[in-house]
Amino acid sequence: MAITLVNPTGLPKIDAYRQVSVASGSKLVFLAGQVSWDADGVTVGEGDLAAQVEQSYVNVATALAEVGASFADVAKLTVYVVDWTPDKMPRLMDGIARAGKRLGDTPVPPATLIGVAALDVPEHLVEVEATAVLD
């Protein structure tokens, strides 16, 4: 694999992601932010943050697979959450865990969580964008 994930000594170990990724590949893959649409453009889990996180991560995996990649190739995720407050963390983590079960592995690349006022449509609560590296 072109990506090695690291939790450096002296930084906190966070279950949701690793602090650093080292990329040694030469092909960069940039994914548009993925929301909780199904293949027909219908929002999955309206009003349910965990369900939307799950579907968004699954959509990232689907997009990666199209170009021969997987979450193992992801160097960085950015997660945008509408009206973020720390009390939403358990629902976010539940959605990531549910996606991990569906995908066969919990994705833990370095990630940044950004609270936003709104996304593309009012029904969307989360958007996940990824950068991957392939050999």
TrEMBL record:
Superkingdom assignment: Bacteria
MF terms in GO: deaminase activity
EC number(s) per entry: 3.5.-.-
Keyword terms of this UniProt record: Hydrolase
Pfam families, A to Z: Ribonuc_L-PSP (PF01042)
Enzyme class: hydrolase
GO CC annotations, alphabetized: cytosol
Chain segments annotated as coiled-coil in the UniProt record: none
Similarity annotation: Belongs to the RutC family.
Protein name (database record): RidA family protein
Upper classification of the organism: Bacteria, Bacillati, Actinomycetota, Actinomycetes, Kitasatosporales
